Amino acid sequence: MALMEIDALVFDVLGTLVDEPAGLRAGIRHLDPSLDDAGTEPLLLLWQQHIEREQRRILDGDRPYLASDALDREAAGLVAGAAGVDDPAAVAALALSARRLPPWPDTVAGLARLAERFPLLGLSNASRTALLGLNAHAGLRWHQALSAEDARAYKPDPEVYRLAVTVSGLPPERLLMVAAHAWDLRGAQRLGLRTAYVARPVGDPPAASDRFDLYADGLADLADQLDTRHGRKRSARG
Question: How far is 40 from 125, CA to CA, in rounded Å?
Answer without folding.
Answer: 24
